[in-house]
Amino acid sequence: AFCDVGFVLVFSDQHMWASIFSVILVNYIFMDGKSDYFQGTALVVVYLILLALYFFAPSPAGC
Questions:
Q1: Cα(35)–Cα(31) distance, rounded to whole angstroms?
Q2: What's the pTM value of the predicted model, to 2 decimals?
Q3: CA-CA distance, 42 to 20, in Å (whole number)?
Q4: Residue ranges of the domains in the chain?
Q5: Are the C-beta atoms of 42 and 30 separated by less than 8 Å?
């Protein structure tokens, strides 16, 4: 097992808010059924923000 920890479905606040924010954003962006370069760029920027959020987040205990 990875880090000798069992499989647990208890998510941290960071994971929960990132998932909720991503679902709301993608729903809002694609609500009209079409997109343009600005919306695509906005999605890439949000992806980079989430990447930085996870990169600089503290490691879970025990790993």
A1: 9
A2: 0.64
A3: 17
A4: 2-56
A5: no
